């Protein structure tokens, strides 16, 4: 089923901003994810309603499962 | 005279997602909104490379979509 890698950042108002990536490489390389998140913060090219992204909050793989229900 | 004013930017990563029946790569776009209008190509390219490295599909290209409003000055 479809998996996503969610990169969660905190902005200047301490609110969460999520950037999601489809078809993540698995198993996840924590070092690579950390480096990519650091790069996104360093480059600072994204904004949010609560200002710049200033810190990493969490990163996680989210899997979506779909089951059809017989009607 | 009409002038334009940049109002929003979007980062678009174009990934190759397999091949179609005639052997050409199938391209899929992944868009990232909330890009600062004053972001530089260097910044966007660095971020695109970082994001691309976390997923499986080959990166075909990086695009930037800018929207401007036009008005009479």
UniProtKB/TrEMBL annotation, chain A:
Highest taxon, organism lineage: Bacteria
InterPro entries given in the database record: DUF2922
Protein name: DUF2922 family protein
Organism: Pontibacillus yanchengensis
Automatic annotation (TrEMBL), chain B:
InterPro entries, per database record: DUF1659
Domain DUF1659: 2-70
Pfam family, one: DUF1659
Superkingdom of origin: Bacteria
Protein name per UniProt: DUF1659 domain-containing protein
Organism: Pontibacillus yanchengensis
């Amino acid at each position: 089923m479809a998996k996503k890698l969610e990169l969660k950042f905190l902005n200047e108002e301490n609110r969460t901003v999520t950037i999601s990536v489809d078809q993540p490489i698995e198993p996840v390389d924590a070092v690579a994810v950390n480096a990519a998140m650091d790069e996104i913060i360093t480059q600072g090219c994204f904004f949010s309603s609560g200002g710049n992204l200033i810190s990493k909050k969490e990163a996680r793989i989210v899997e979506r499962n779909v089951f059809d229900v017989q009607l | 005279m009409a002038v334009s004013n940049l109002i929003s930017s979007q980062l678009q990563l174009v990934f190759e997602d397999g091949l179609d029946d005639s052997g050409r790569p199938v391209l899929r776009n992944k868009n990232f909104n909330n890009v600062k209008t004053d972001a530089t190509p260097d910044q966007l390219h660095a971020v695109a490379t970082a994001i691309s490295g976390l997923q499986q599909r080959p990166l075909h290209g990086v695009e930037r979509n800018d929207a401007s409003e036009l008005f009479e000055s």
